[in-house]
Amino acid sequence: MQRFVQTLELADSPESIQKYRRIHDEIWPEITRGIRSVGINRMDIYLHGNRAVMIVDMPDDIDFDTAMTQLATLPRQQEWENFVGRYQKCEPGSTSAGKWKRMTQIFELPE
Description:
single chain; alpha+beta; four-stranded antiparallel sheet; 5 helices; 39% helix; globular
């Protein structure tokens, strides 16, 4: 199993951050189906202030970048990106792959 950790900044406004949280409480079913259809087993988003961190788990035999490219073509995905993009610090029309920046792991607790 592969794990990817990504980050993005939200608009630095408590109201905006609260709206972003609520949107994810009612995520569109097409979006969750699309995420699973490209091979993602688990996706979690955490917030600290205006910083969002996404953790993605997927099988070793699936290429992350290919999966993200495929995800961007699925029904309603770009509509979703535009919708949530109002609360994110990103260029208008950005895809998920263009918004989220992959983090580099620098430590793993030894066995």
